[in-house]
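User: structure tokens for this one?
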Amino acid sequence: MEERRARLWVIEDDEKLGRLVRRMLGDEHDVVLFTRAQEALDRITAGESFDLVLCDLKLPGVSGQLFHERVGVLAPERVARIVFITGGPCTEGDGAFLERPDITHIRKPFDSLDSLRADVREHLRRAGGSDASDGTR
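Assistant:
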């Protein structure tokens, strides 16, 4: 039985890196790229959902931490499906946030294509896999 493609949202303000991640994961998953977290929040407000979000921690406007907080209000059942992608904490507050037991992250730069794909598969498995079944997913 073939695995259903997951709907991944990538929130990365570095467009070049975002496109690279989309290419790296696009053969296994449906990847939607956002350069601003507010764009993703607007889609959630409109009723769309995701199977997993890879979200940069440092973003202009709505930061990764604030995105996490707002998803917790808008779609609390999805907040555990947010995985931060970060080169490491820039501030003491970032470090404390990343150390919380309910926060998961993947380090940039990625070790390899295989390791990124394996990390995404593992996070999808932990989150319950792909469960979006309609066109709005």
